[in-house]
Amino acid sequence: MWHCLLFFLCFILHKLPRVQMEFMTDHAQSTASMISLVEMESVFIKQLDRYSDDLEWKINSMESFLDEVQLKRVPWKHTPEEYVAHPLTSFSLIRRLHEDWSHMEIFMSHHVGLDSLNKIQSILDMAKPTEQDLQDALSGIDAIQSHYDLEPTDIANGVLNGRQYNTTMTTLECLAMVKFHESNQQMHSAIGWYEAALQRYDGARDGHLYREVLNFKLSDFYGSYARALAARGLWKPALALLENVSDLHADLWLLQRQLRNLMDLHERHETYVKKDPNTETIACLGLYTPIRNRSCHYESTRTAFLRLAPLKVEMLSLDPYIAIYHDVIYEREIARVMTLALSSLKGPGRYSKRREHNIKSVTVYEEENSQLNQRTRDMTGEQVKEDKDFRIYNSGIGGYIRYHMDNLAKEEQQPGFGDYQTTIMFFLNEVPHGGAISFPQLEFTVWPRKGSALVWHNLNNNLELDYRVAHISCPVIVGSKWTLVKWLHEEHQRFT
What we know:
alpha+beta; 11-stranded antiparallel beta sheet; two-stranded antiparallel ribbon; 17 helices; 15 strands; elongated; oxidoreductase; iron; Pro_4_hyd_alph_FE2OG_OXY; vitamin c; P4HA-like
């Protein structure tokens, strides 16, 4: 398995164009891109297990030698004169020191497990996640937290939007979130993650590994947490935190005294009042009243084919037009487009005001008269001749698209095409938790359902943007989200 993974990584690094290599490293932007990381860590686990076995063999060999030497010394442990007075023991002592200990010195200097170490180093040098990958992952967790109004302690304990999952975060992972928020000047959020980090720390479980291997100092953690609290004017919580831990290090004792003095000089004691849910939170949680006048019917009149095989339609809104068509993309079609996309998904450009976050996509080229395009005509009654292709999307950690309209700027509109008249979004898989499409102005939210398609008009009857259909693609909390999207241009629909 190791050789196959190394060959694959070498191929990726040496054969693909530079721009593709950069996209290949954007692991957090797509669940499909993260599968290789699971395989990579499996190789690491196997190699570390072998390394551990090699070390254990070396330790067992040294302990066997020690047992034998000490066994011979036990009867004369407190009387070295009697030990050397016996010819057999004195001869054994001289021979061991002349021969055996020289062999043991050579044995001790021999490095075991180098093959396993070299294999891990080779993969890390070529393909370990980058700093940008880590930042993408951190921003994804932050997106889930902010869009669903979650507490850091709940997230760290595996409680996501009211559901308990069987995975949790470590103290070091919570501290990575602290660093992320501090670098973005989000100090209140940083304090929440400090609290989660402290809650998740277990000295008996984590102490030795964190201290000796992972470069974690408990005294530094308490100091940073107390300073963060004090910076927000939370003097009493800062002092309470240090009350029972100041004996860990002299610096904590000095910090405690310094904070007491500062508290006497400052009268401000900040308190935090939790804000009401914002528009994005309400939208992604679907906190709207049920849609009135919602109806379902079979569409059988739009095209001749539908007389034989009508489509199941759920009308969400007539003005503006928004509908869900059920069971309109089939397993073989889903498998085909997802297989085509797996090797070529690309992330969006990195600029501050981009609307797509932790989402990768690629164009799926489709024949004009394919069954999927024919079904699109059946659903919309519109022409697809010049709009025959689709765009497939896969979300990564907390992947979402900001509140936006599906439209083109004037300078982006091609002659004879115009703006986007209609959007058709196929849901290719079930999403266990999150990932809804929400229309805040219309006050309803649509949850992904495999095989269905969400259809809406972006332009009104005057071919002007209908801002009522501005929408949010909410972060996926748990699971992967695959959608297949087509936009139909206005100029091609003049006679439809």
